[in-house]
């Protein structure tokens, strides 16, 4: 018998100042959701009284709030906050958050989040194969993977990139081969060798170039 996954109730943090014109509305929205049980615990911090909190979260302006592990800057409506409270603790929600942040050009924020939560990287890589995702988001995934060149964290991208070498769109397969080359992972060699037989010349070329950069296999 199939059972539904347990509902995860997120916690939230809100940073405010006495002069912030938008903070009272967020205080009301998040407090109401806490009273309703949609949020487990709400911490409201006045950063004028506790400036160390802003430093700890790396925040220079308010309003700023965090739901589960997702950070939000600026003004949000009650409907938007409620939406993210419902999404913040799920993989689809995290993926949507990363997509929206990349589409908005917040690459540094996403990179910081990926370093803090390495398990999110496969969710991000999967955006490459989502042709409904904003183009700017898919371009942002590539830029982030480039920034991880030579880092151990890039190995987290290995499995989803291998899966993308079978994508229906040859552009996705080609990009997957290129980024597999950045991993320098022996486990990627088989997928790249198979891609040498791809029907697309772009895929074959990227696979060949990626393999050319790999160290020689152990005898």
Written account of the structure:
With 219 residues, the chain is an alpha+beta fold. The protein has 2 domains: 12-87, Glutaredoxin (3-Layer(aba) Sandwich); 91-212, Leucine-rich Repeat Variant, CATH 1.25.10.10. The protein has 11 helices and 4 strands. The chain has helices at 23-35, 51-57, 78-87, 91-103, 107-116, 121-125, 135-147, 158-164, 170-183, 189-195, 201-212, and strands at 12-16, 42-46, 64-67, 70-73. A 4-stranded mixed beta sheet has the order 2-1-3-4, with helices on both faces. Strand 3 and strand 4 form a beta hairpin. Helix 4 crosses helix 7, helix 8 (158-164) runs antiparallel to helix 9 and helix 9 (170-183) packs parallel to helix 11 (201-212). It starts with 11 loop residues before the first strand and ends in a 7-residue tail after the last helix. The model has no long low-confidence stretch (mean pLDDT 94).
Strand residues, percent: 5-15%
What would CATH call the architecture of the largest domain? Answer: Alpha Horseshoe
Q: Tell me, briefly, the overall form.
A: elongated
Total count of helical runs of at least 4 residues: 11
User: At the third CATH level, what is the topology name of the largest domain?
Assistant: Leucine-rich Repeat Variant
Total beta-strand segments: 4
